[in-house]
Structure formats: structure tokens, C-alpha cells
Design a protein that fits this description.
About 45% of the residues lie in helices and about 15% in strands. It has about 400 residues and is of the alpha/beta class. Strands 3-2-1-4-5 form a 5-stranded mixed beta sheet, with helices on both faces. Helix 6 crosses helix 13. The longest helix is centred in the last third of the chain and has 29 residues. It is globular, with a radius of gyration of 22 Å. About 45% of the residues are buried. Bound molecules: 5'-O-[(R)-(carboxyoxy)(hydroxy)phosphoryl]adenosine (KG4) and zinc ion. 5'-O-[(R)-(carboxyoxy)(hydroxy)phosphoryl]adenosine (KG4) binds next to helix 7 and helix 8.
């Protein structure tokens, strides 16, 4: 079975083609990536310090056809002939792209003709995410569905992040998933494929957002996560005897670390970062070394909270596997700290992370969630008209 998967929920336009073959030893079977492309808008959003929805929409509309052509070429699918639409199809697409007229023009001009048996399914992220960005992908998937007569499967972006560590590896359920990204901080109990229950979440800001805000206050560019990680790792790798501690005590809070539930809160940490940096600046202490120290203290604070909450979640829910996904799961220190703490608690629990390029938004994880849906015979039988962007879709 071949799947074309599309992801446009935030600031990455991502498309891939997967081929899945059943394998009884692997819960998602054997998956081959026949083509894969991600066009990131991160540098364009950098000047706003975060993702700017109308800019995201415009960029998705501009990039989605070229990204598809790139992926088709990688998969060895001929893209030389331009598409030939019937009058009816043209009318249908004109209506479909009512709010994306620029995409309609690009589609008519540049969309290649492809064999309708090139794929079996189209998988599309319908939520959660930024509505204007999601709609570009949703309408594009519907257009392909109309033109090539293929079924479209709506996918939850968070299910993609949950399954992202399983591209080449089997996993045993039940599992706990820790989803840490720019928009989410959640703990999900996964009884099996397609059977998910949220058991903890942030009550305010997401962890990635907190990384990005802290980075901005430190004068680092967006996205700030990798920048802070670099500084923090530099500090940790400095031998203790060579470390120059700031002359005033700096300790950030670990919000909700002792609360009895599995929820998180990062807004207090963000405020504390703001005031502490202000104080350091007032005293003229915010030099490069202090910034490095500060990044490490920040990373330690969020790591302490994540580790504590995951151990609590494991204590309360006997599981076999921990799946960690989302952009922040690329963070090596968080990774090592979670693995170590969970191994110390119970060495039989397997902790799994996606590869670096699968931790941030991509289409492969969306295709994998599609394969999961198909493998459990999940047939929503949705009419094309019923497939809509759901900015706040809860798993
Ligand atoms: O999953 P993702 O690509 O997009 C969302 O769905 O939000 O996550 C992006 C977030 C950003 O906040 C970025 O700063 C953070 O992931 N991030 C990191 C690292 N790499 C990306 N945070 C900490 N350490 C990293 N190495
Ligand atoms: Zn994401």
C-alpha cells in the first residue's frame, strides 16, 4: 500500500510518499520512504519571534505544489506532463480554493498529471494547528482526491508525533507518550494504536514556546530551542573548576513539580526568566558566560519537571514503552535525562525517540498515523465535504 501524506499545520510544508508492507514483527509493518520533502518557513517567521498565521498560509500555498513535485521525482514518478482537468473538475477546484486563489492558479499551471494508481491513500493533517495553515493542506489534499479519485484520511498531528519513533522499530503497548513541542506539552496513555487518552497537559504555555521566549530574551534567534540547547551544553561541558558563576544567585522555579497531577505549567517559569534576566542586566552581569549559565539553569528546570512528571505517570500507569515526540524531543539533555531516570526506575521499560529530522514537523509521521489507522481498520468513511481543518482537535 502506498500513501501520500501532507502536513501544513504550522510553519513546515511537508509531503512524503510511503510504502507499507505488513510484517507481523512490527506493529506498523515495514515502511519504505519513497520520497520526502520539508520546506521550512522558520527563517521567515523569525522576525516575528513566532509563527505568523497569514504568512504561514501564503508560504504553504506557494510551496506545496513544488514540494509535491520534488517528492514525486524522488519516488521516480513522471512529472513531465501537466495536468489536464475537465471543466467540471476546474469548477470544483475553483470552489474548493475559494480562499486560496493563489494556490488555484499554481495548481492549474504547474500540477503534473500522475497515474491514479500511484497511491492508494492520501493522508492529511487536519488538526490541531493554525487554521489558515491547515486549510491549505486540507484543500490541496481534497483537490488531489478529486482529480485522482483517491480516498483521503484525516490525521491528527499529535498522533503523528506519538508514532514518530516507530518508523523502523517495533513497540509494545501499552505505552505512555510525552509530546513536547512548540504548541503542546502533553502526556498521553496509549492502550494501543488508535486508542489514546490524555492524562496530563500544560495549563498555560507549551515547553517549546517557553524555550523560544527565553531564547528571545537572551537575544537568540527563533526557533530558540536548539540555540539554548547549544549554550546549555557548552556550560555543562565546561569543567566545574573553570565555570564562572554569576556573582548573584540565580535559581529558576520548577513549576508544579510537586503537584499531585500530571499537569505542567510554564508561564511562571517564563515570568521568572524575564525578571531574572532584567535583574542581571540591571547589574550589568548579563555577559556571554552568564547567558551560558542561564541557558543551562533553564534547561535543568524544564528537564527536572519533565522527568518528575513522567516518573509519576509511569508509577500510575503500568506500561512497556515510553514514546517521546515533538520538536523538543530533539533535545539531547532532555533525552539522556529521561532515559536515565526511567531506566533507574524500571529497566524493562523501553524509551523511544524519533530521529532528529522526525522530531520536528514532517509528513512521514502523518503517513505513519495513516498506516496505523488503516491497520486497525479504522474506517471513518468520511465524505470529502466532511473533511475540515480542526484547529483544536483533541486526540
Ligand atoms: O514539533 P515542532 O516542530 O512544532 C510544533 O508542532 O510546535 O516543535 C518546534 C519547537 C520549537 O519551540 C523549537 O524551539 C523546539 O521545538 N526545539 C527544541 C529543540 N529543537 C527544536 N527545543 C529544545 N531543544 C532542541 N534541541
Ligand atoms: Zn508538531
Amino acid at each position: 500500500m502506498k500513501i501520500l501524506a501532507i502536513e501544513t499545520s504550522c510553519d513546515e510544508t511537508a509531503i512524503c510518499i510511503l510504502e507499507a508492507k505488513p510484517n507481523p514483527k512490527n506493529i506498523l509493518g515495514n515502511i519504505a520512504v519513497l520520497g520526502n520533502s520539508v520546506s521550512s518557513q522558520a527563517s521567515l517567521h523569525a522576525e516575528f519571534g513566532g509563527v505568523y498565521p497569514s504568512l504561514a498560509k501564503r508560504e504553504h500555498a506557494k510551496n506545496i505544489v513544488p514540494v509535491l513535485i520534488d517528492v514525486l521525482n524522488q519516488a521516480g514518478i513522471n512529472t513531465e506532463n501537466k495536468i489536464n482537468l475537465t471543466n467540471n473538475q476546474q469548477a470544483e477546484l475553483l470552489k474548493l480554493f475559494e480562499h486560496e486563489p493563489e494556490l488555484y492558479e499554481i495548481f492549474i499551471k504547474h500540477m503534473p498529471q500522475i497515474q491514479s494508481d500511484s497511491f492508494d491513500y492520501i493522508c492529511i493533517t487536519t488538526g490541531p494547528g493554525l487554521a489558515p495553515a491547515l486549510w491549505v493542506g486540507v484543500n490541496f489534499a481534497k483537490a488531489l482526491s478529486i482529480v485522482f479519485g483517491l480516498p483521503t484520511i484525516p490525521i491528527n498531528h499529535m498522533e503523528g508525533h506519538i508514532l514518530s519513533p516507530l518508523l523502523a522499530t517495533n513497540a509494545n503497548f501499552p505505552a505512555l507518550a510525552l509530546l513536547i513541542s512548540g504548541g503542546h506539552t502533553e502526556i498521553i496513555y496509549a492502550e494501543g494504536l488508535g486508542n489514546y487518552k490524555k492524562i496530563g497537559q500544560t495549563l498555560d504555555d507549551a515547553i517549546g514556546e517557553t524555550y523560544d521566549k527565553t531564547a528571545r530574551l537572551l537575544g537568540l534567534p527563533y526557533p530558540g530551542g536548539p540555540q539554548i540547547a547549544k549554550l546549555a551544553s557548552h556550560w555543562r561541558n565546561t569543567p566545574p573548576e573553570s565555570r564562572q558563576m554569576p556573582p548573584i544567585e540565580v535559581e529558576l522555579p520548577r513549576p508544579m513539580i510537586h503537584s499531585n497531577d500530571l499537569n505542567f505549567s510554564f508561564s511562571g517559569l517564563k515570568t521568572s526568566v524575564l525578571y531574572t534576566l532584567k535583574k542581571l542586566e540591571e547589574f550589568g552581569l548579563l555577559d556571554e558566560t552568564v547567558k551560558t549559565f542561564f541557558a543551562a539553569e533553564f534547561e535543568q528546570a524544564v528537564t527536572d519537571v519533565l522527568v518528575k512528571k513522567m516518573l509519576k505517570a509511569i508509577e500510575q500507569n503500568p506500561i512497556k514503552t515510553v514514546l517521546v515526540g515533538g520538536g523538543v524531543s530533539a533535545n539531547n539533555y532532555i533525552k539522556e535525562s529521561l532515559v536515565e531516570a526511567i531506566k533507574n526506575y524500571d529497566e524493562n521499560i523501553v524509551v523511544m525517540f524519533p530521529d532528529q529530522e522526525m522530531s520536528t514537523d514532517n509528513a512521514i509521521m502523518i503517513g505513519m498515523a495513516g498506516i496505523a489507522k488503516i491497520s486497525i481498520n479504522f474506517n471513518e468513511n468520511k465524505k470529502l465535504g466532511d473533511i475540515v481543518a480542526q484547529a483544536n482537535w483533541e486526540l
